[in-house]
Amino acid sequence: MLAEIDVAIIGAGVIGLATAREISQGKKEVFVFEKNRTFGLETSSRNSEVIHAGIYYPEDSFKAKLCVEGKNLLYKLCDKYNIAYKKSGKIIVAADENEINWLKELYEQGKKNGVKDLTLLSRTELKKLEPNIEARAGLLSPSSGIFDSHSLLKFLYSQAREKGAEFVFNTEVIGVGKAGTKYEIQIKDRDGISAFVAHVVVNCAGLKSDQIAQLTGIDIVKSGYKLHYCKGEYFSLDSKYKNLISRLIYPAPEQAGHGIHWRQALDGRVLLGPSARYVEEIDYTVDKTHKQAFYDSVKKFLPLVELEDLEPESAGIRPKLQGPGENFRDFVITHEEEAGFPGLINLIGIESPGLTASLAIAKYVSGIMS
Ligand SMILES: Cc1cc2nc3c(=O)[nH]c(=O)nc-3n(C[C@H](O)[C@H](O)[C@H](O)COP(=O)(O)OP(=O)(O)OC[C@H]3O[C@@H](n4cnc5c(N)ncnc54)[C@H](O)[C@@H]3O)c2cc1C
After folding, report:
1. What DSSP letter does each residue of 2-41 carry, written as one string?
2. Does the bond joining 274 to the residue before it have cis omega, within 30 degrees of 0?
3. What radius of gyration do the chain's Cα atoms show?
4. Mean per-residue pLDDT, 296-301
5. Is the CB of 145 under 6 A from ligand 1?
6. Distance (Å, rounded) from C-alpha 87 to C-alpha 80?
7. Contact call for residues 137 and 103 (beta carbons, < 8 A)
8. What is the CA(144)–ligand 1 centre distance, in A?
């Protein structure tokens, strides 16, 4: 007879960690399986660490609702547990008439999503706030900010453990088969392959979450669960640019991302990015030849930037449900009961604003689990 546990969470990124913390109450036996040597080594530590306000997404989408709720939960948690953050605010800038119209649409969209503190800025108002920025107009979002996401990951991990969750690192889930109303999970670790039974499976496998869904027998193409990888690179700027700009500065978004933005991290580093380019492989190297494209993009709103001051920094990969040229896709967060898989919860396509929304996502998962 195989050993049985209550809940198996696959993946110890921010979503798996937040979920483990939320559902571990002593009554349930919760195990988190992670193929890496520790938590948070993939997308959860390769992002902009921006607390998003919740402006861009269609109202009533998970992305809008869970971002707004998650933002409030995250600021409260950072206050309560001394996790460093800066509510710096953010300005989205418009370079021409088309982009000004688009800013107005964003303003309305943000209001519909419950982001009530947005202000449209004229060029003069923008210049007063950020004299070094050049743009025709702006949209100010005071509730956007940056935070120390690594401390959040550590905090979620230690709280989940305190509440009784068990973490199993260096262990890859390679099979999830339905066994009556339960699931037989196959794992691979240093000692080889073994199996156990779980009553509930929560798929938080990030870039591999579509593959985990496929292992269960779900047709990921028919269900629209197939992921596309979209790489985002960052370049850093010389330290002479430090404190030149006080807020996050975002241009008009690209088709697949929010556009190459300006950010001063909490440690003072000035960072540009992420770009957005669909790729086939998971490869985190930064292509130096993209420097010119970064420069051209940033020069539009920061005329004093110099090409030689940019250096390749890091990269992350978005797990996107939306393929190249396709329309908006929301997060998939679903209990697959209706598809014939009671007890299986899939989280697929948790790209931005997944970090901001993580605490709200965990609450939602806890709600649909019972
Ligand atoms: C470039 C970029 C910038 C971003 N910027 C922001 C931002 O500023 N603000 C924001 O809110 N969001 C941002 N995001 C989004 C945010 O980072 C993600 O939504 C979030 O980190 C997703 O967390 P996760 O736990 O789902 O995934 P991950 O962190 O990738 O965790 C998934 C885990 O599952 C594990 N795993 C996978 N397969 C298996 C298996 N078979 N067995 C065991 N373990 C497995 C992996 O090893 C990994 O540790 C950004 C994303 C990118 C790529």
Report:
1. --EEEEEEE--SHHHHHHHHHH--SSS-EEEE-SSSSSS-
2. yes
3. 21
4. 94
5. no
6. 15
7. yes
8. 20
Backbone angles phi, psi at 208, to 5 degrees: -110, 10
Q: Which two tokens stand for residue 228?
A: 């596309």
Stretch 104-126: mean pLDDT, rounded? 97
The DSSP string of 59-81 is TTSHHHHHHHHHHHHHHHHHHHH
pLDDT tens for 194-233 read: 999 999 999 999 999 999 999 999 999 999 999 999 999 9
Q: Which residue among 32, 44, 57 is best mutated to probe the pocket of ligand 1, counting the most ligand atoms within 8 A of its Cβ? A: 44
Q: 315 CB less than 6 Å from ligand 1? A: no
The pLDDT tens digits of the residues spanning 267-297 come to 999 999 999 999 999 999 999 999 999 999 9
Taken in order 13, 17, 20, 26, the sign of the CA dihedral is positive
Please indicate whether residue 349, judged by its CB atom, sits closer than 6 Å to ligand 1. no
Bridge-based pairing of strands 261-264 and 270-273 is: antiparallel
Instruction: Return the beta strands (E) in 98-191 as ranges.
Output: 119-122, 137-141, 145-147, 166-168, 172-179, 182-189
Instruction: Give CA separation, 270 vs 139, 235, 308, in Å.
Output: 21, 9, 14
Q: Is 3 exposed, middle or buried (0-12, 13-18, 19+ CB in 10 A)?
A: exposed
**How many Cα atoms are found within 13 Å in the side-chain-facing hemisphere of 249?**
29
Q: Which residue type does 274 have?
A: P
Residues 195 and 238: beta-carbon distance below 8 Å? no
Tell whether pTM > 0.90: yes
CA distances from 188 to 3, 8, 12, 39, 199 (A): 16, 15, 16, 17, 20
| Residue-wise pLDDT tens digits, 308-352 | 999 999 999 999 999 999 999 999 999 999 999 999 999 999 999
Query: Is the CB of 271 within 6 Å of ligand 1?
Result: no
